[in-house]
Every structure is written in structure tokens, then in C-alpha cells.
């Protein structure tokens, strides 16, 4: 199988989110911080990928996703800025 342009392996995103949680030591972060860390020159191309993986992890109970400091509904994709943090 040939990967489409701008394809990113979801497992890389998942591991990167978990690593950023470890590095941030309890502080939340924006999903864009993960892809900026991985792909500093092309991070915008991967925003939909990171948000998709973020929501999957949230639904699995691996992370917390908040908007304006409130947990979001895991069944609806959020509109606007969100923050990722460890499960609380």
C-alpha cells in the first residue's frame, strides 16, 4: 500500500502525545504543540491527524481533552482550541 501525501502513522502521534504528557508533568498542552515538535516546518498539514488521534485516545480513556478548562463531549469533535492532559 502506498501512503497518501502527508500521511502520518497514527501510532507515532499516539506515542508523541503520551511522551508530551510525560514531559509536561501535569500541565496541559495544545495538540498543535505535538505536531510542531514532530514536524516544525509542516505542522499545519497534520492538525487534522493529531486532532483525530487525540479524540480516539480520549474516547479510549487514555487522555483528557478540555476546552475552556471543561472536559469536552467525547462523542463530538470539538470546534476551536482544546487542551490535552493526563487522565484525571
Task: Produce the secondary structure layout.
Elements: H1 10-24, H2 31-38, H3 47-59, E1 64-67, E2 70-71, E3 83-85
Antiparallel strand pairs: 1-2, 1-3
Given helix and strand content, the structural type is: alpha+beta
N-to-C SSE string, H for helix and E for strand: HHHEEE
Unreliable sequence segments: none
Q: Which overall shape is indicated by the principal axes computed on the Cα atoms? A: globular
Total number of beta strands? 3
Q: Report how far apart the termini are.
A: 39 Å
Can you walk me through this structure?
The chain has 88 residues and is an alpha+beta fold. The protein is built from 3 helices and 3 strands. The protein is globular, with a radius of gyration of 13 Å. The model has no long low-confidence stretch (mean pLDDT 92).
